[in-house]
Amino acid sequence: MGRFIALVIMLIPVFIAGYGIKLMRDSFFQISNISFIPLAFEFILGLVLFIAGVAFIGGFIFYRDKKNGKISPKFTKKKPES
What we know:
- The protein has 82 residues and is mainly α.
- 68% of the residues lie in helices and 0% in strands.
- The chain has helices at residues 2-28, 39-67.
């Protein structure tokens, strides 16, 4: 049950990134989805949503791999010697 909940939580940023791509594509072809926002702002909103979704997924994968010890040593924090 825990893995299913984790999958559902990971689908939220995927949908956010997908909606961002849709907003960028529609503003590129001059189709306004949000009637009171100019197309340039709609494109910027889509870009922000896309970057936020991809960054969340990338951060999750990085954190999981770091926890499992599967990342390069240059990404691990060095403990200060006292």
